[in-house]
Amino acid sequence: MSDTTDQVQALTEQSYKWGFETDIAMDLAPVGLNEDTVRLISRKKNEPQWLLDWRLKAYRAWLTMTEPHWAKLYYPPIDYQASHYYAAPSQKPGPKSLDEIDPELLRTYDKLGIPLREQAILAGVEQPRQIAVDAVFDSVSVATTFRATLAEAG
Predict the structure, then answer these.
(1) Alpha carbons 22 and 115: distance in angstroms, whole number
(2) Weakly modelled stretches of the chain, pLDDT under 50
(3) Long-range contacts of range 144-148, CB-CB < 8 Å, 24 or more positions apart?
(4) Are 31 and 84 spatial neighbours (Cβ–Cβ below 8 Å)?
(5) For position 127, what pLDDT does the model report?
(6) What's the confidence (pLDDT) of residue 102?
(7) pLDDT at residue 88, as a whole number
(8) What are phi and psi of 84, to 5 degrees?
């Protein structure tokens, strides 16, 4: 069992070789999960009260649950209080040119193969024509083109 644990630890401590990370300034919730964290996330996302109530109800239900134990499978208990549950790139006032965009974010767009024109649209520098694009970082939409048109469509 010790060999397996050593192998898993070695794998989890190595660099992620199948992709990349983007090191940009982030707005992070404090580590841990509680009702205050749920409220913070809902506030950051400008959610309506009914959705916050639903999330709090779900959180309280989760607190009463026990984790299943699967046959012939062992893993250490998950420490749910050791993670950030909200992370989003720090927001700045609207840029006037691509020169004002975090260079690391532009490198990420480039790695993803997003053409320069679409990078400018996602950054809010140019207005979109007839395309709708949503850029998501850490599960948070950071740029959505055609927002008004999409809102009209519901």
Answers:
(1) 18
(2) none
(3) 145/121
(4) yes
(5) 61
(6) 73
(7) 81
(8) -90, 135
Task: Dump pLDDT digits (tens) for 107-136.
Answer: 777 777 777 666 666 666 566 555 566 666
CA distance 82 to 32: 6
User: Taking a C-beta distance cutoff of 8 angstroms, is the pair 20, 76 a contact?
Assistant: no
| Residue 2 φ then ψ, to 5° | -65, -40
pLDDT computed for residue 122 by the predictor = 64
**Could you tell me the pTM of the whole model?**
0.56
The C-alpha atoms of residue 36 and residue 19 are separated, in whole angstroms, by: 33
Kindly give, in sequence order, each residue whose CB lies less than 8 Å from that of residue 67, ignoring residues fewer than 6 positions away: 77, 78
- Which tokens belong to 105? 């974010």
Distance separating alpha carbons of residues 90 and 121, to the nearest angstrom: 18
- 3-state SS of the chain is CHHHHHHHHHHHHCCCCCCCCCCCCEEECCECCCHHHHHHHHHHCCCCHHHHHHHHHHHHHHHCCCCCCCCCCCCCCCCHHHCECCEEECCCCCCCCHHHCCHHHHHHHHHCCCCHHHHHHHCCCCCCCCCCCEEEECCEEEEECCHHHHHHCC
* Alpha carbon separation from 111 to 18, 19, 39 (Å, rounded): 13, 10, 35
pLDDT value of residue 117: 65
